[in-house]
Specification:
By secondary structure, the protein is of the alpha+beta class. 61% of the residues lie in helices and 9% in strands. The protein has 19 helices and six strands. Strands 1, 2, 3, 4, 5 and 6 form a six-stranded mixed beta sheet that branches.
Length: 429
């Protein structure tokens, strides 16, 4: 057997890949069966590996640099150049790709894209996207679907592993790979600066970002309040539009960040949410792909409804419509002074029967469940505001401060005043 000779480690440039890098990419593509394309810093295709296995090449639109497909790839390449590490993204058709920039002597020379590949499963929406993007007739659409059906399917965790392999394949082939480390550090530092700026803005009244409304929306989602959640997400988008002077990319960035927070919080509360998110992945993808404010609003409302309904299911997954409606009513009005009489009036159900049913289904009494919500809300007010104890009591639906203190101490093992002190808040006299 003939020994393999390692190619010389020459420095590539924007238009010509070195022998070492070329051989490394060829090996990566052959072993993984994933097409790789190199674009220069003007978004022009310079080199392709496994061209025959790249589904994009059967469509004419892919050849046009101003097409939605190519613009999507160019945007990913630019982002990868700032990131300094692999950037996994979905193309306009919903297929997964991995972008890695080529940095030579601290200068962005171009970028590589591995893919597209199918992640998780081949969705019907993918074939539809191909047909819509390329104005395919029925026969051409069928051919695209057949081509896609032969593509290998990768699990999301495998995509991450492939991204690491792809990244190492490139940086070991480029002298001066410290450039990538510098980019990652710079991006990380900029991220920290942005977070610090957000904290600074949050503490100053001159900035009008709707933090209070954001928190209300998160409470809506956590408590399964579907109607209120949809109403408040619409209000948030309206405020984002004002803050960004109507700039869609700015609005969209804020919406994506908002949903990242909501999904993280919801995931911590409900272990089944990730499965629901995977099922409705097309909705999340559409947030990034929306072109108009109305479309962004529609997708946002659909997604917030899905997450909120799932949160309500996590609170109660029984079959009683009475308990379901009661939970919706309680979760919406728990800050008010509500009683069994209110449940009877609003749900048209006998209060004694409801009390028995609620205890059987939920494992706690109506009063205990209601007080739990009130006390958690009180904890938030005590730890994050300077409201005095009386106002906190009233804000959580307790008319009697002594009763509020008694219920609070039973639930938390300390008085409201002690709880506030434990969180470093000094009550103003």
């Amino acid at each position: 057997m003939k020994n393999f000779v390692i190619p010389s480690l020459d420095t590539p440039n924007a238009e010509t890949l070195s022998e070492y890098l070329n051989t490394s990419l060829e090996a990566f593509s052959d072993i993984t069966d994933i097409p790789v394309t190199y674009f220069n810093n003007h978004d022009q295709i310079i080199k392709e590996f496994k061209t025959e296995d790249k589904i994009c090449n059967i469509f004419s639109i892919y050849k046009k640099e101003d097409s939605p497909c190519r613009k999507n790839l160019a945007s990913a390449g630019q982002f990868a150049s700032r990131l300094g590490e692999p950037y996994i993204f979905l193309c306009k058709a919903g297929l997964a790709n991995i972008a890695i920039s080529l940095i030579i002597d601290e200068v962005f020379a171009g970028y590589f894209v591995a893919g597209p590949v199918i992640m998780g499963e081949l969705r019907n929406s993918t074939a539809s996207s191909f047909a819509n993007l390329n104005a395919l007739d029925e026969q051409a659409a069928a051919m695209a679907k057949m081509f896609a059906g032969k593509m290998k399917i990768y699990h999301p965790s495998q995509i991450s592993q492939i991204a690491l392999l792809f990244y190492n394949c490139i940086i070991t082939s480029v002298s001066g790979s410290d450039d990538y480390s510098a980019l990652r550090n710079q991006y990380s530092e900029q991220n920290k600066i942005n977070i610090d700026i957000q904290h600074y803005k949050k503490e100053h009244l001159t900035v009008e970002y709707p933090y209070d409304l954001e928190k209300v929306l998160i409470d809506n989602v956590s408590n399964g309040q579907v109607a209120a959640a949809k109403e408040n997400v619409a209000k948030l988008l309206s405020t984002f539009s004002i803050l960004e002077a109507g700039n869609m990319e700015g609005i969209k960035a804020k919406v994506l960040w908002l949903f990242a927070i909501i999904i993280r919080i919801a995931s911590e509360s409900d272990s089944n949410l990730n499965q629901v998110i995977d099922t409705d992945l097309d909705i999340i993808n559409r947030l990034s792909e929306t072109d108009s404010y109305n479309e962004l609003l529609s997708v946002s409302e659909s997604l917030i409804e899905m997450i909120t309904k799932n949160m309500l299911t996590s609170i109660y997954n029984g079959r009683s419509q009475i308990v379901t409606k009661a939970l919706q009513f309680i979760n919406k009005n728990y800050k008010e002074k509500i009683s069994l009489k209110d449940i009877e009036t609003n749900l048209h159900v006998n209060s004694s029967y409801f009390s028995t049913l609620f205890k059987q289904e939920m494992g706690v009494t109506f009063t205990d469940y209601l007080n739990t919500l009130k006390i958690e809300h009180a904890c938030n007010l005590l730890a994050n505001t300077n409201l005095n104890i009386i106002d906190v009591s009233l804000s959580t639906g307790f008319d009697d401060q002594s009763y509020f203190t008694k219920v609070f101490k039973k639930a938390k093992g300390m008085t409201p005043k002690a709880y506030r002190a434990a969180h470093g808040i000094v009550e103003e006299i």
